[in-house]
Design the sequence.
């Protein structure tokens, strides 16, 4: 690949990354917001669950967090030098969870410190602890999102094999349950891994 092709590819990747956030700034573009929510909703949910909230409360806090982000997006100007977008999302989720629980009783230890404070939605500087949590959950979330994205490109049996492997089921047991040879089981598993690896790389570029 020559220098011009590399430059064009990098430019295309930057346009993709910026466009996902940029399109979501337009509150009248329902499709853009739906795409944004499709990418980030589960990530926000995972963060909130990590903070100790039960499923029902976490689901409600996700909705409140997304509403705050939606309200802030038109005035939001993303500058990577100031911080990461995922850290900004994580701080908003933490603040929202903390405020949500204040009227319900003691706030969990995971939310009791001051590191979540700061209601300026246009300021996305975060404490190191918040950035660390955001990064850790992001690294966990990317494979989950990648598998979701590639599932429609593979047959159901191939995905089933990979899911069973991920749940700790041995190749011999998978082969018996799905009436496959053990060799086929390993081939299916590798097929998913290869596509997931490529998709994770694409997502890292996009985000």
Sequence:
């Amino acid at each position: 690949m020559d220098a011009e092709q590399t430059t064009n590819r990098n430019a295309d990747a930057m346009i993709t990354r910026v466009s996902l956030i940029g399109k979501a700034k337009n509150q009248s573009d329902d499709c853009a917001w739906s795409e944004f929510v499709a990418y980030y909703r589960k990530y926000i949910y995972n963060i909130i669950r990590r903070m100790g909230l039960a499923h029902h409360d976490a689901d409600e806090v996700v909705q409140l967090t997304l509403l705050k982000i939606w309200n802030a997006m038109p005035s939001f100007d993303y500058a990577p030098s100031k911080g990461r977008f995922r850290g900004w999302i994580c701080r908003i989720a933490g603040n929202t969870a903390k405020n949500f629980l204040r009227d319900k009783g003691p706030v969990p230890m995971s939310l009791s410190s001051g590191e979540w404070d700061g209601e300026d939605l246009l300021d996305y500087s975060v404490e190191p602890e918040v950035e660390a949590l955001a990064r850790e959950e992001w690294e966990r979330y990317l494979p989950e999102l990648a598998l979701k994205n590639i599932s429609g490109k593979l047959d159901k049996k191939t995905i089933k094999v990979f899911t069973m492997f991920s749940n700790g089921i041995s190749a011999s047991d998978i082969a018996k349950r799905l009436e496959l040879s053990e060799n086929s089981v390993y081939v299916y598993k590798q097929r998913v891994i290869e596509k997931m690896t490529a998709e994770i790389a694409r997502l890292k570029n996009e985000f």
